């Protein structure tokens, strides 16, 4: 009797809470992040919030102005493990002709738990800079759980230049460092606005996203 009541209660709770919200796995499949970026979608959500007041939410549209500065990021982490975080744009220069796929915006390794400030920056954060007339780009956040603390053999990329950002593949990077599939993810979309030409790396002409 108690057992059946508790099942009924769990089903009800599920209906009232999580079962109404779409899962990140479904959202990443629907927006073709699988297979454009990764082959297996993560099951956990990365919470990403910007100081402008906006948050990333499974493909919502944000503006380059809103995502200028490095966001705060959180995910369900094991405090004793190390993680790699990436933000990447598969739609460079646009979703149909993605000859620069992927243009990566942020890459941090050896993050203890979810404390990004203690991680090793490989590529500094650069906000979205989709060129005029290229439509919506997808900006994908992924977190990988590392097998251990790693020695990365990558160039350090600052936010002052767009060099070496394009033709990246987070999936290949994951294979190179034996990271497996991502454990958490999220994404937003953005198109051109009048902040794009003011991005630090855009000031000298360059092809970017
Ligand atoms: C670029 O990076 C520097 C640190 O290297 C930081 O102080 C600055 O705020 C960053 N600029 C933007 C627009 O994120």
From TrEMBL:
Protein's UniProt keywords contain Repeat: no
Residues annotated as signal peptide: 1-21
Database matches in CDD domains: PEBP_euk (cd00866)
Coiled coil: none
Alphabetical list of Pfam families matching this protein: PBP
Domain of life: Eukaryota
Alphabetical keyword list: Signal
Record-given protein name: Phosphatidylethanolamine-binding protein
Organism lineage string: Eukaryota, Metazoa, Ecdysozoa, Arthropoda, Hexapoda
């Amino acid at each position: 009797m108690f057992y059946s009541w508790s099942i009924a209660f769990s089903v009800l709770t599920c209906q009232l809470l999580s079962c109404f919200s779409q899962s990140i796995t479904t959202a990443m499949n629907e927006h073709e992040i699988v297979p454009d970026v990764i082959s297996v979608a993560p099951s956990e959500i990365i919470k990403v919030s910007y100081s402008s007041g906006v948050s990333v939410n499974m493909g919502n549209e944000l503006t380059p102005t809103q995502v200028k500065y490095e966001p705060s990021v959180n995910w369900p982490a094991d405090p004793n493990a190390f993680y790699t975080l990436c933000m990447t744009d598969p739609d460079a220069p646009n979703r149909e002709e993605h000859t620069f796929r992927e243009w990566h915006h942020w890459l941090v390794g050896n993050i203890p738990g979810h404390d990004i400030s203690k991680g090793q920056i490989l590529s500094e954060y650069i906000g979205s800079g989709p060129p005029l007339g290229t439509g919506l780009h997808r900006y994908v956040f992924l977190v990988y759980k590392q097998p251990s603390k790693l020695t990365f053999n990558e160039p350090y990329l600052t936010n002052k230049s767009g060099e070496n950002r394009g033709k990246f593949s987070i999936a290949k990077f994951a294979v190179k460092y034996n990271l497996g599939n991502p454990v958490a993810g999220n994404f937003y979309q953005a198109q051109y606005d009048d902040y794009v030409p003011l991005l630090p790396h855009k000031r000298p002409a360059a092809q970017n996203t």
